[in-house]
Amino acid sequence: MIFRLLIAIVLIALGFFLIRRLRLHLRQDKKNKLEQNNQYQETICCKQCGLRLPKSEAIEKNGVFYCSEEHTEK
After folding, report:
1. 3-24: pLDDT as tens digits
2. Does 57 share its domain with 30?
């Protein structure tokens, strides 16, 4: 009787451990996918010199993108 009780306790503890581990693994996978999605940014070409750069770093003037303030003045 005690042997069966010990086996039941061990199985329940193992079940909790495996479920906890699985949930942690799923959270890390979701976090990694979000990081991968944010890794790539839209790029544009400078109208003046043709340099490719991320759109977030470009300077927009009159709907045209440039790589620096100097190129917007020319």
Report:
1. 999 999 999 999 999 999 999 8
2. no
Q: What is the pLDDT of residue 26?
A: 85
Instruction: Name the 3-class secondary structure at 45.
Output: strand
Side-chain half-sphere CA neighbours of 20 within 13 A: 6
Q: Model's pTM, two decimal places?
A: 0.47
Structure confidence at residue 74 as a pLDDT band (50, 70, 90): low
End-to-end Cα spacing for the chain: 90
Q: Are residues 22 and 51 in the same domain?
A: no
Structural domain range at position 55: 42-74
The Cα–Cα gap between 5 and 11 comes to 10
Q: Based on the structure, what is the number of domains in the chain? A: 2
